[in-house]
Amino acid sequence: KRWGVKEIMFYDDVFTLHRGRVREICALIGEQGLKVRWEAPTRVDLVPEPLLKAMAGAGCVRLRFGIEHGDPEILRRMRKESDIAKIEKAVTSAHEAGIKGFGYFIVGWLDESREQFRRTIDLACRIPLDYASFYTATPLPGTPLHTESVAAGRIPKDYWDKFVQGEFDSRIGYLVPDAQHRAQAAYRAFFLRRTMVKPLLGHMAATGQWRNTLDGLRSLARSTSNTDRDF
Fold first, then answer.
1. Percent of the chain with pLDDT over 70
2. What is the domain range of residue 73?
3. C-alpha–C-alpha distance, residues 29 and 92, integer Å
């Protein structure tokens, strides 16, 4: 109230991990009469419908989901506590509660086939997301991907130690040769759809980023490649 803030972001990797705390926050927002919109990141296995309704009633307008992938086998290799059914239910339930969904995806996983990549695009376009980001896979230390990549001989076991010490100054190569192209193709498939017109207009109206968003869409359209047909 003091600073006239109208929208806030909770920087908590898994905001709904402790449901009791979330309910307390929602109750306090109501008790204080705060007219504020807010969003937070969470997991698809931690958003029961009653909690979503409470959050929506307290001003939650968007949840950011770490969906990661649309292929069951790669989700298993990622050791995700989710599956396709949970992903679909979580995003759909949030949408029905009036909460927009922002999905984060990773493409170019080690030995990801084109069919597996295509399943990620299909999932992203099938569920009611208002926005999505697609990143290329990076084998960070301590992750299942790093373990797999070292075992497959794709990166040196001590790469990150030497990188931090300045002995390596080049980045790790993509685990799938056309990973960057896959990410670009995913962006085009997701955003250049008729069904995205309304969400994008809402995004531009809410953020005031009309020019940046339109420039981004034009860039995506211009970069359309014939090789997209391969996917």
1. 87
2. 7-224
3. 25
Find the Cα–Cα–Cα–Cα dihedral 215, 219, 222, 227, rounded to 10°.
-150
Q: How many domains does the chain have?
A: 1
CA distance 26 to 36: 11
Report pTM.
Answer: 0.86
* 7-9 sheet: strands from edge to edge: 7-9, 37-42, 60-68, 100-107, 131-136
- Which of 41, 33, 37, 43 lies closest to 56 in space, CA to CA? 37
- Is 230 among the domain residues? no
| CATH for 86 | 3.80.30.20
Is 229 part of a structural domain of the chain? no
pLDDT in tens, 22-78: 999 999 999 999 989 999 999 999 999 999 999 999 999 999 999 999 999 999 999
* Residue 28 to residue 209: CA distance in whole angstroms: 31
Helix axes 84-96, 114-126, angle to 10 degrees: 20
